From TrEMBL:
<dbReference type="Pfam" id="PF00067">
    <property type="entry name" value="p450"/>
</dbReference>
<keyword id="KW-0349">Heme</keyword>
<dbReference type="InterPro" id="IPR036396">
    <property type="entry name" value="Cyt_P450_sf"/>
</dbReference>
<dbReference type="InterPro" id="IPR050182">
    <property type="entry name" value="Cytochrome_P450_fam2"/>
</dbReference>
<dbReference type="InterPro" id="IPR002401">
    <property type="entry name" value="Cyt_P450_E_grp-I"/>
</dbReference>
<keyword id="KW-0492">Microsome</keyword>
<keyword id="KW-0256">Endoplasmic reticulum</keyword>
<keyword id="KW-0479">Metal-binding</keyword>
<comment type="similarity">
    <text>Belongs to the cytochrome P450 family.</text>
</comment>
<keyword id="KW-0560">Oxidoreductase</keyword>
<keyword id="KW-0408">Iron</keyword>
<dbReference type="InterPro" id="IPR001128">
    <property type="entry name" value="Cyt_P450"/>
</dbReference>
<dbReference type="InterPro" id="IPR017972">
    <property type="entry name" value="Cyt_P450_CS"/>
</dbReference>
<protein>
    <submittedName>
        <fullName>Cytochrome P450 2C40</fullName>
    </submittedName>
</protein>
<keyword id="KW-0503">Monooxygenase</keyword>
<keyword id="KW-0472">Membrane</keyword>
Length: 487
């Protein structure tokens, strides 16, 4: 299917008539009455059965083209990545970011910011203290903290500590230091991140995004989101100012230092790069995006993993047997071990596939008038990618509703890759921290299982893994458990 790009002119009403098919929208509310925000995946799947893999839904008066299934998502995000690389409108976030940062910026600003971020993270990973060293060290701090429970059967809620570990990893990158797990300011920041993600994942937040005028006039948790986000951003802005005062351009310590050095060089060469915004405000937005992305997504995934590992003890037993055989009890897990641990590697992949943390990723937008599969999509039209439809494809993953590491193992028990494994999305807008996130999941989970037996407070078959929110990102239910030290 070819894709033809027009000159980028404003789209007419006639053009919109050539959008992909979909249910007829009602005035003002569009198709909202047809969408169950508590089960968006099933709704999108049902629509695809009627209208095909490319169709249109109206959120209020705004059309959104939905891509459902591996082939069409690959065709859009990979084969025609530039045209589908725009960031769709997310009013509740735009109100606080004002178009700055990494996640929700657009055009040349986004391209320059992403290029700088990816290159800087690569530079930092090549230093004396590599990425893996940082994660391994944090994994040991995590074990030390969990051992403070002394193996008792007292109920323990792992939510905060599973947020603290990945947050400390990202803080090591952006702030050059980690925090103690009992640091009140640190716990407050982690708590605010958790609450922010919970709010934007609620069904009501999706209503506000479709009708942004309500944000200014209606009470609700979105005001807590604004307050918490501002608090986190202001904290990081103060850290940036502190970095500026102690900056040594010959010895950058962290991500903020690299940004400050690049900012200084850019100011000296005014015509060098006008695409990048080197203001402190933009810098704070970029760092805040990294802080959010590096904390909550890992925290939620690890909490879901703990629930799944307790619910399916036979899978946990196989993983721990492989850990004992390959690593032993007294050596810290490392990434080289992964090549010799196919079952454990498969388990980590299956956690991400099964959990399906971001069911539809973050909304995209076409960057120009586009003809796609014989449909016309006007510039600026939102594009929703159903990642769930790929991660739960029954042809690629037999019995996709079942948690089974075998989905990533061949007949001989060797690990097998899958092009359908896209929990980080795909194309030009895919998560910049994918490699770091995958490393953290492997090292944190193997280190935990190397040192502890996981004990549920209820019968494994009664463990509920239903997320409490799932509209934007899936939020695991609150639960308690016990970490019993391995003897």
């Amino acid at each position: 299917m070819d894709l033809i790009i027009s000159s980028g002119r404003q789209s007419s009403l006639g053009d919109r008539a050539n959008l992909p098919p979909g249910p007829s929208p009602l005035p003002i509310i569009g198709n909202f009455h047809l969408i169950n925000m508590k089960d968006i995946y099933q709704c999108l799947t049902n629509f695809s059965k009627t209208y095909g893999p490319v169709y249109t839904l109206y959120f209020g008066s705004q059309p959104a083209v939905v891509l459902h299934g591996y082939e069409v998502i690959k065709e859009a995000l990979i084969d025609h990545g530039e045209e589908f690389s725009g960031r769709g409108k997310f009013p509740i976030y735009e109100k606080v970011t004002k178009g700055q940062g990494l996640g929700f910026s657009r055009g040349n600003l986004w391209k320059a910011t992403r290029h700088f971020t990816i290159n800087t993270l690569k530079y930092m990973g090549m230093g004396k203290r590599t990425i893996e060293n940082i994660v391994q060290e944090e994994a040991q701090w995590l074990v030390k903290e969990l051992k403070k429970t002394n193996g008792t059967c007292l109920p323990y809620d792992p939510q905060f500590i599973m947020g603290c570990a990945p947050c400390n990893v990202i803080c090591s990158f952006i702030l050059q230091n980690r925090f103690d797990y009992e640091d009140k300011d640190f716990l407050s920041l982690v708590g605010k991140v958790n609450k922010c993600i919970e709010i934007i994942s609620s069904p009501w937040c999706q209503v506000f995004n479709a009708f942004p005028i309500l944000l200014d006039y209606c009470p609700g948790n979105h005001n807590i989101f604004f307050k918490n986000y501002a608090c986190i951003k202001n904290y990081l802005l103060e850290k940036i100012k502190e970095h500026e005062e102690s900056l040594d351009v010959t010895n950058p310590r962290d991500f903020i230092d690299y940004f400050l050095i690049q900012r200084s060089q850019n100011l000296e060469k005014e015509n060098d790069n006008h695409q990048m915004n080197y203001t402190f405000e933009h810098m704070a937005s970029v760092v805040t995006d990294l802080f959010f992305a590096g904390t909550e997504t890992l925290s939620s995934t690890m909490r879901f993993a703990l629930l799944l590992l307790m619910k399916y003890p036979h899978i946990t037993a196989k993983v721990q047997e492989e850990i004992d055989h390959v690593i032993g009890r007294h050596r810290s897990p490392c990434m080289q071990n992964r090549n010799h641990m196919p079952y454990t590697n498969a388990m980590v992949h299956e956690v991400q596939r099964f959990v399906d943390l971001g069911p539809n990723g973050v909304v995209h937008e076409v960057t120009c008038d586009t003809k796609f599969r014989n449909y016309f999509i006007p510039k600026g039209t939102m594009v929703i990618t159903s990642l769930s439809s790929v991660l739960y494809d029954s042809k690629e993953f037999p019995n996709p509703e079942k948690f089974d590491p075998g989905h990533f193992l061949d007949a001989n028990g060797n690990f097998k890759k899958s092009d359908y494994f896209i929990p980080f999305s795909a194309g030009k807008r895919m998560c910049v921290g994918e490699s770091l996130a995958r490393m953290e999941l492997f090292l944190f989970l193997t280190t935990i299982l190397q040192n502890f037996k996981l004990k549920s407070l209820v019968d494994p078959k009664d463990i509920d893994i239903t997320p409490i929110c799932s509209a934007f990102s899936k939020i695991p239910p609150t639960f308690q458990m016990c970490f019993i030290p391995v003897q």
